[in-house]
Task: structure prediction
Amino acid sequence: MKETVAQQPDVYNPQSIEPVWQQQWEAAKTFRVTEDPKRPKYYCLVMFPYPSGRIHMGHVRNYVIGDVVARYKSMRGHNVLHPMGWDAFGLPAENAAIEHKKTPQFWTDENILYMRTQLKRLGLSYDWEREVATCKPDYYKWNQWFFLKMYERGLAYKKMSAVNWCPSCETVLANEQVITRDVTNIGLCWRCDSHVEKKELDQWFYKITAYAEELLAECDRLPGWPERVLTMQRNWIGKSVGVEVDFPLADDKNRAIRIFTTRQDTLFGATFVTLSPEHPMVEEIIRGKKESAAVRTFVERITKQDINIRTAQNMEKEGIFTGAHAINPMTKERIPIWIGNFVLMGYGTGAIMCVPAHDQRDFEFAKMYNIPTRVVIQNPEGTLKSDELTAAYTDEAGKLVESGKFSGLSPNEAIEKIAEFIVSEKLGARKTNYKLRDWGISRQRYWGTPIPIIYCERCGTVAVPYDELPVTLPPDVPITGKGGSPLQADKNFLNVKCPKCGGPARRETDTMDTFVDSSWYFFRYLSPKMDTAPFDTKSADYWMPVDQYIGGIEHAVLHLLYARFFTKVVRDLGLTKADEPFTNLLTQGMVCMETYRCEEHGWLFPGDLIGSEKEGWHCPHCNRPAVRGRVEKMSKSKKNIVDPEQLIATYGADTARLFSLFAAPPEKDLEWNDAGVEGASRFLNRVWRLVTSHAGPGPVSGTDGTERTAALRRVTHQTIKKVTEDLDRNFQFNTAVAALMEFYNAITAQPGDGRDEAIKTLLILLSPFAPHIAEELWKRLGHTGSVLTQPWPRWTEAALATDEITIVIQINGKLRGQIRVPAGLDEKEIQHRAMADGKIKDWLKGQPPKKVIYVKGKLVSIVL
RNA sequence: GCCGGAGUGGUGGAAUGGUAGACACAAGGGACUUAAAAUCCCUCGCGCAGAAACGCGCGUGACGGUUCGAGUCCGUCCUCCGGCACCA
Result:
């Protein structure tokens, strides 16, 4: 402490005590952790940040939640691993390089340095010796190592594919990185909101689809995950079980169109077939037909359209008859073949059978083009008529009709029976489809992990040998933001000798999607300095899986699915026993704040407004009224941000921590409000005054046996119970903090002896939430050693017991009175006293009650 | 359209089927102070009644139902938020 301010021991001054304790913890290596088979392990993980420059309130909330969990579990006797690191590759570093003429490396290192000190100011209990940064060669070497392992196993492969191309970022995006935000359903870049285009490129993929079934099935075995996250993952994997069926061409019975359906029970009702405009058989079937010219024009027009626009929800269905016919394999009827703009080549076989009677989309299409409709599932009332339908009949109830030997079956029975028939008659096969696509990992970018592949003129695609890893990024590459990958311009990087034949070859210049980095970082924390393997399997056997993972809901699909996939790959490489990386998942809500706008000057910082709540706020530039906007996620663009650094400077880290925990349950959005921060600060000030005014030269005398002392002891144990249960049950930090406030109120409400145990307990219970003040006051009470190493207090049922209890009396379910009775009084006597109560007597009016219900220790309910 | 989640005071939010509104914020009143800040105390869902006290009625998005008793369980609906969506 360099401050020369006179020490005023009676004033709570977080700015002076917080750094002292942070240094103390660091010097004592309080949070360093190693494997310890004697203690139960607890792996508490928070999503590591992208080093964008400064931490924001979302980070604060995330890390404070994680810190309370870690500190609490540690006090409960667990050996807690609580690491932190940096998701350090990514586009902003390149943008910064263009803007500020700093290399991505320099910019990133600078940011990490700054943000690390910011995090340290929050007093977070990280084992900093395990810090990792994904942009360091000793980290990304292992991205490359995993790539090679996957390449060997056929899990990494290259193919030409139409990819999402962001013209602004000049890079490829994964499907998951294309978002649709408004009703037009147009694909936008997840990072910059640009309109995404299609482009054909040769790309590297990870074969996540090989694990689709396991990723889906394991969703049922993740009870510690929020249901909505599992739902999103299930939707994303998008499994559908059905059959592929061949519809032979009428002109050539040896050729057939293969369709995919999940509703084979309606096969007899298929009155036409529709192909995707991209379907490879289109040209074959229209050859020589009078419709061929019109069809070609149609196909050309549709395929030119952006796929995102074409598949938008409100896109008009459009189709054209090909002039060709197919044979319905069940009815043997000739049915027309159409081409439709709504049929996707990328799903199933790119061809569908159409059953207008039992599929709403097919129904609308058939109505539009006058194609016949045939009812093959009759409703229980028997009222459906093929030519009178006004909508498709899609209910599960009903029986098959006009379906040959399957008539009379329920749709569910028929789905199975007809599938069997299709297989046995060799009309097709059972088939399961997934919406999940393989994960395109190629990025035409500099600041990422180089893909360890070499292209040789003679040997073709050659893997970089393991002993040549890592393929490092060349440090001085000009980054312009234009054209393709900057690595292509670096001839030293690009031109290499082939590892196989020694001949001239060139390197792959694409780098990996940064989601690769974050798919396994939780393994790297276990042995961050290991240089012979990505991590130590022995450590993983001890620590994995992560007991509690905490982060934003925005990663519900992308990051969490990739991390699950990677874990399964790592397991199949024999490196871990874990099937799933994260046992429990807590998705914390966003940090929001109200927004203000001036019609002239746009968004305004709330802190800059002039005026007052009562008189109304005005724009500081032009004094126009500031219009209050919606409460939205804090963001720079809307200017509704609170800078954590400012907050800590004003109130201290403990207040910042306490408020972000108290204002809302963790999974809900938190609305920031300065007055609430004041409240949290006031509470800590009160605790400070209570303890500092209480602390005497020596320990204060113990229990004195009075009723007041017993009452305080009771509240103490009640609070231990409440806080413990709130933390154990879903981390209800807000109610736990409320219990501590009540506890404080109870202690001060009854001045007198016997506060010792209460105050001591208050500090221990407070320490995970506000560790600095707890440490300081603990010390001032005369304790040696850290409050953090105190065991978590236990409550006893005996201490909770009271001599007298309150019994509530209800008449016909309405509250009519209450009586105090000695604890342990028997039911009969309690009922008797309840009826004898003056007020209750008035209600009874001398009549005997019909019924009396007694809830033990709680209430008497009298029915008249 | 489908699948989740949520609707409680002026506000954020509490309530294993058992006293709705804990805790906090805001607001109002008071004490202390020359004054202010800080701090402390009181009031604080709506209505009725009353000098006061003891009270009474209503009240958790709407309407029904189950129950001695429903914010909580069931049914129907409304609104908002999130996800998915021409996926065959």
Notes: Confidence is low (pLDDT under 50) at residues 1-8, 696-704 of chain A. Residues 36-134+534-590 of chain A form a domain with the Rossmann fold fold (CATH 3.40.50.620). The longest helix of chain A spans residues 707-728. The longest strand of chain A covers residues 156-166.
